[in-house]
Amino acid sequence: MASYSESLDFKFVSLDTFFVQFIILFVVLWVLNKFVFKPYLAYLDEWEERQKKIEKDYKNIDNLINQANEQKENILKEARQKSDEIIYEAELVANSKKSIIIEKAENEAKEIVESGRRQIEKDKLSMLSDAR
Questions:
Q1: How far apart are CA 29 and CA 25, in angstroms?
Q2: Alpha-carbon dihedral angle through residues 59, 64, 65, 69, given to the nearest 10 degrees
Q3: What is the pTM for the complete model shown?
Q4: In the chain, count of helices (H) and strands (E)?
């Protein structure tokens, strides 16, 4: 009678070589899984996350632009208001200084006129005394 392994021989493959090939295949698949497939799948997941983030940022860019435009408009509005206030205050200061200068000029003019009148009165009295 033939041995057990010889009785299970197939036409092209023996049971011993089948087991060895199965173990080699299992080891190759395990190595590929550990060092190729899992890292590659992790890389693909990371890449997909980055793409989703880029897409989300791209969609949010319109919102960010709108917010920036609103902030710009608010800043411009505040700047215009402040400039209007500064102009108003400058006009008030200019008007008050103008009033002071006009008042001072009027006072000086009155003094000059009064001084002139006194001088005329002096000259008149001097001429009258010379004439007597």
A1: 6
A2: 150
A3: 0.43
A4: 3, 0
